[in-house]
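Example 3.2
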Amino acid sequence: MQPTIAKLLAVLAVAVTPALADTVHGLVVYSRHGDRTSKFYKGYHLTNLGAVQVQASGSYYRDRYIKTGAERQILGISPDQYKESQLWASAPDQTILLQTGSNFFEGLYPPLTTLDPNLAAEKLNNGSSAIAPLNGYQYIHIQGEAPEEPDTIWIKGDEQCPAYTTASATFKQSNEFRATFDASSNFYKQFVDQLKNIMPAENVTYAHAFEIFDLLNVANIHNASVTVPSDKLDQLRWYADSSEFAQNYNATIPDRAIGGQTLMGGFLRQLQQSVDSKGAQKMSVFVGSYDTFLSFFGLANLTDASPNFKGLPDYASSLAFELFTEMNMTSFPSNTDDLRVRFLFKNGTSPALTAFPIFDRKDDSMPWNDFRTEFQARAIRTAADWCGRCKSTVGWCSQKGIAPESKNSSTSSTTNPTTDSKKSKLTLAQAGVIGAMTTLGVVALVGAILFFARRGKKTGAVPAHSKRAGSDSESAGSVGKA
């Protein structure tokens, strides 16, 4: 991150610090998974470090919104004991994302014996008591959305969607892609030897920017025999940033952003549920992938707040929407005109959520009714609309009158939306990594802290859209710009 941008963000963060007099009535969170093995290989999974990162994120949200005395405790939320009626959660039916949800909730609602032993003990008629396994472990209900179910579109709206696939693929036919491909050719050649056991030399190009960055980034974290200089890794990240952002958002090619549009539909549905229930539904959590983050960043005009929003969000990043009133209250407001919505983002293991204005507004929050209008204008809000936009042949799209409601049956019908140091060679086994090779525990947590402290700029308030080096910076054109 360039110093001028860092200074701007520091000023912005101070300017949008939430007022202490606010009362939070509802919260929607979207989280990325933590550190994992490389996506290049089948069966990729969270590492121990990744699980620690996501649990730490859940603990942060607990400290901010849940526990007694929390800085912005959600009005009426149970501070220690999970209540299903207050918390809704959804993740794709994929191991890495379901585990991410579980790890997040382990931080949000830890085992009860660590919070309140009296709550943990269930009294029996014979005078004894029973405590749930694992010291009163709290089992949070996460709705696993299978690919063949309509509700999967709210977090994975770009999958099984031919219109998205076609629109995204056009990036590699564009002038922007060709300019960057040509300008980066010499840069990528230096990695051919390192990757020769994994991919053919002709694939070590900008056309595979994310795969190459992912392989080397994962190896750099976990494989002691592989060292990628930080400036080279930053360069690889920049190319991955530009390629992935461009494939998931372009203002003139709306179908590239279908994943973000359905995610916005999911956000709107859950916030509307908090309003319709008069705050009975306190919190909603979605778990998903980086591509949907990028799509949403573009749709919300966050790249105008900082160009770094064109960058990949770090592992365990999260964004949140607060539904709140600008006054101390003891109950849900009788007039919804009093409600406002604030957007916040936490990049990876950065210390705290930071509020940012969306839709090119000056303020960091907006009236609920304005927020709803803005989202309705951009979001895909019904499964039928998704089927039409995507031209999808998925089985449930052919059902007559398809517009299934969410599994949350009380959703409002008005907004019902129903995702160059010494070179080392990588072998397939080395790059596939390695969660199993490292015993982390407490040592991993300390290592994670040191690791991210060293990375510095990549765990700031926004994703670090790395600066290109040398001649590449001067000749590659404006990749990723709408």
